Amino acid sequence: MRRSTVADVMTTDVRWVPPDATFAEVADVFARAAVRAVPVLDTDRSLLGVVSEADLLVTLERAGTEARRQWWRPRHVHRGPSTVKAGAATAAALMTARVRTAAPGDSVAAAARTMREHGVSWLPVVEDGRVVGVLGRSDLLAVFHRDDSAIRAEVVDEVLGRALLVEPVRITVSVADGVVTLTGELDTRAETELATRLVERVEGVVSVVDLLRYRVDERLADATVLPRF
User: Fold this and answer.
1) Which of 46, 50, 161, 213 is most buried, by CB atoms within 10 Å?
2) Are the beta carbons of 18 and 92 closer than 8 angstroms?
3) Residues 133 and 71 in one domain
4) pLDDT in tens, 84-102
């Protein structure tokens, strides 16, 4: 079954700043590139940290007390005390060094899980210590741009044909705007449930309409078997 990787959907045109970039230079990159975070890279493109919009705002609001600023934590890093310093004037001082990253070979599903579990919306993509791309939530949605005919072919060939060994004539598969409808009959209730779960995992599938029937409900059959003593 097809499984897209981070390399398939990431943005390779990376906007970044050096550690000695001034506050004004960092803000200018944000404005010109229309981004909400930028990696801070060394001369060899190794990742040093990340500056986000929130980092800039904390500095702009430095008139407040340090205690009042402790409620804020950058959304793209591990939970923990903020490393932002009030009045920071360079990218090195502004950035957060502990950054969640992805690798080009990671699956899109794994990257999406990282974003969800850690409450982030953006990940630098790092290979051999160097930034090769960035990944945002909008990039992850690219897997849903798959053609309906390609989705149907994978459901018929890979899910029904190879995984479940179901004869094609037994199940009718139709796909419209990523919504897969399954019609037909399988042997057991468990097989229909498994078929639906596997189809839901196919890339590009938005939802599954399960109209499958089954010949035997094995749960009822098991209930009629008397226990042996």
Assistant:
1) 50
2) no
3) yes
4) 445 568 999 999 898 999 9
Task: Indicate the residue among 95, 115, 143 that finishes a domain.
Answer: 143
Q: Are 26 and 56 in contact (CB under 8 A)?
A: yes
Q: Are residues 156 and 165 in contact, defined by beta-carbon separation less than 8 angstroms?
A: no
Please report whether residue 125 resides in a domain.
yes
Round to whole Å and give the CA distance between 9 and 200: 20
Contact 125, 26 (CB under 8 A): no
Confidence (pTM):
0.64
Let me know whether 178 and 210 are in one domain: yes
> Do residues 35 and 99 both lie within one domain?
yes
> Cβ atoms within 10 A of the Cβ of 206, count?
13
